[in-house]
Design brief:
The complex is a heterodimer of chains A (487) and B (100). With 487 residues, chain A is an alpha/beta fold. Chain A is built from 16 helices and 11 strands. Among the domains of chain A are: 260 residues, Amidase signature (AS) enzymes (Alpha-Beta Complex), CATH 3.90.1300; 75 residues, no CATH class. A two-stranded antiparallel ribbon of chain B has the order 1-2. The chains are: A alpha/beta (487), B mainly alpha (100). The interface between A and B is large, with 67 and 52 residues.
Chain lengths: 487, 100
């Protein structure tokens, strides 16, 4: 396998054996970006000189015999929603086009402390609002398996970067499926940790009670490795939970026995593509062969999750995005305008259509006279959705099903119909509403060669078990070893 | 939602929308609200709203002096600057004062 097709663990091994240096690794990925990213368009910003400098620093440290971090010399791509000190951070929005953060997000501090090499910032749906990266204020990322199709979103750039072998691992964020859905559509692994597991400090807020940072990787081992680095308590995020972080890589190869898998009948209704369904059923059979018990469970309120989400997430967004007023940073409308007109024109010029639509919906849901009927009603149903999971997890270790109802769709297929786009997150959204953990792993391909993802969901703070369950499947299948031929 | 409601919400949200935009927005928001109306089917009497997935409490820290961002760093991204301050349009316009 070539350097760029390697996993992070393999790259660590090659460096330890002296068969590669951080610099040769960085050069290989930079060359891949130069060649392939013209087509894939995963990256928003790559500073080659800065990448080389980081890689050389790691090599120098190794030469001196200094203790190296867990990701020494491993290139990591970063979704452009995470603040990176001195490096542009745009959220793929025109309103933050020239924004250069004066500080690093907590997860970036962690990656730097682990001697990772930050290779670039990746494209996304503007402010993480979307499921295809078509809402990026700058350009659309392509699916490496078929360049005429979308990579999923909103972390489409980070997913495509790994799938196209432009970085072995990357970071994304997931508010309603924005890591798991693109992981599924790009044939890689993507985890949404439990709410509070990973610090949100320096993550530009979309919906604060739902947002979580998580890694993408080719396989589950690499995902454990990344989780070990980024998870953990941070005093700068008041919702960060002070629970010990298990050594995920130490146990990830241990199968979970006995294992009871819950399969929610609601995940197999109308709208589920038949090829996706067969791949999921086949994956469940693999688990049965491994000795797992598969049991039907019910999540009766899951059909309401999309409706709840588009009230709760937009309400929180309308409040969070009020900060973009053109006063302290970001775009400001030109011309002699009074204060209110400056705010209103700045926001109209700076925000794209989907962001405007969601701000409007959220403002309406919170407005006087409508708040009880929409926002509060949604919060009550959110409780019912969480209760469903509590009841399900009383009978099983994990809940499995499809990550997305279909494989990657064509560019432009859903842009005219916001509601159709929203429904592509139908299986991932309830996980965020309930605050539990979820992961998507590759489990097959459609006849036309598009990846399919299996979603595994686990109770809060049971990432360790969830990763082990995911790894059991990898041990008996080889989907995670396939690499896209970008052409 | 009709155009007047959309216009009112746009004002609340501080978004300058053209008449054409208001029309499209009214149509799309009406469709989305039609979809979320399915929540009305559910009886949620006595259900406690869930704003946050985990039980969260206030987090306190000792009230101690810590270094903060230097002024120049903080002003680096400012669209307009005046000395050590952010320059912004007049919040209280003298001309405004007379009419209010």
């Amino acid at each position: 396998m070539s350097l760029i097709e390697s996993t992070a663990a393999e790259l660590l091994g090659l460096q330890a054996k002296g068969e590669a240096t951080a610099e040769t690794i960085a050069e290989a990925f930079l060359a891949a970006i130069r060649e392939r990213d013209l087509k894939v368009k995963a990256f928003q910003h790559v500073d080659e000189a800065a990448v080389r400098e980081q890689a050389r620093a790691v090599d120098a440290k190794r030469k001196k015999g200094a203790k190296l971090g867990a990701l020494a010399g491993v290139p990591v791509a970063i979704k452009d929603v995470l603040c990176t000190k001195g490096i542009p951070t745009t959220c793929s929005s025109k309103i933050l086009k020239n924004f250069v953060p004066p500080y690093d997000a907590h997860v970036i501090q962690r990656l730097k402390a682990a001697d990772a090499v930050l290779i670039g910032k990746t494209n996304m749906d503007e402010f993480a609002m979307g499921s295809s990266t078509e809402n990026s204020g700058f350009f659309t990322t392509r699916n490496p398996w078929d360049l005429q199709r979308i990579p999923g979103g909103s972390s489409g750039g980070s997913a495509a970067a790994v799938a196209a072998c432009l970085a072995p691992v990357s970071l994304g964020t997931d508010t309603g499926g924005s890591i798991r859905q693109p992981a599924s559509l790009c044939g890689i692994v993507g985890i949404k940790p439990t709410y509070g597991r990973v610090s949100r400090y320096g993550l530009i807020a979309f919906a604060s009670s739902l947002d979580q940072v998580g890694p993408f990787s080719h396989d589950v081992f690499d995902n454990s490795l990344m989780m070990e680095v980024v998870a953990g308590h941070d005093a700068c995020d008041s919702t960060s939970v002070n629970e010990p972080v298990p050594g995920y890589t130490k146990t990830v190869n241990d199968p979970v026995k006995p294992l009871t898998i819950g399969v929610a009948k609601e995940y197999f209704g109308g709208g589920l593509d038949s090829e996706v369904e067969s791949a999921i059923r086949a994956a469940l059979k693999e688990y049965q062969k491994l000795g797992a018990m598969v049991k039907e469970v019910s999540l009766p309120h899951s059909p309401y999750a999309v409706a709840v989400y588009y009230l709760v997430a937009t309400a929180e967004a309308s409040s969070n995005l009020a900060r973009y007023d053109g006063m302290h940073y970001g775009h400001r409308a030109k011309g002699k305008l009074d204060l209110i007109a400056t705010y209103s024109r700045t926001r109209a010029e700076g925000f794209g259509k989907e962001v405007q639509r969601r701000i409007m919906l959220g403002t309406y849901a919170l407005s006087s006279g409508y708040k009880d009927a929409y926002y509060v009603k949604a919060l009550k149903v959110r409780r019912l959705i969480k209760d469903d999971f509590d009841k399900a997890f009383a009978q099983c270790d994990v809940v499995m099903g499809p990550t997305a109802p279909t494989a990657a769709f064509k560019l432009g297929e859903k842009t005219a119909d916001p509601l159709a786009m929203y429904l592509s997150d139908i299986y991932t959204i309830s996980c965020n509403l309930a605050g539990i953990a979820g992961i998507s792993i590759p489990c097959g391909f459609t006849k036309s060669g598009l990846p399919i993802g299996l979603q595994i969901q686990a109770p809060p703070f049971e990432e360790e078990k969830m990763l082990r369950v995911a790894r059991m499947y990898e041990a008996v299948t080889d989907w995670h070893t396939r690499r896209a031929k970008v052409n | 939602m009709d155009i007047d409601q959309v216009r009112k919400v746009a004002r609340l949200a501080r978004l300058e929308l053209s008449e054409a935009d208001l029309g499209v927005m009214a149509q799309q928001l009406t469709a989305i609200l039609g979809y979320v109306d399915q929540l009305k089917e559910l009886n949620t009497e006595g259900v406690e709203p869930l704003a946050h997935p985990l039980p969260v409490q206030n987090v306190f820290r000792p009230d101690e002096l810590r270094p903060s961002l230097p002024v120049d760093e903080a002003l680096k991204n400012a669209p307009a600057r005046s000395g050590d301050f952010f320059a912004v349009p007049a919040v209280l316009d003298p001309a405004d004062e007379q009419t209010h």
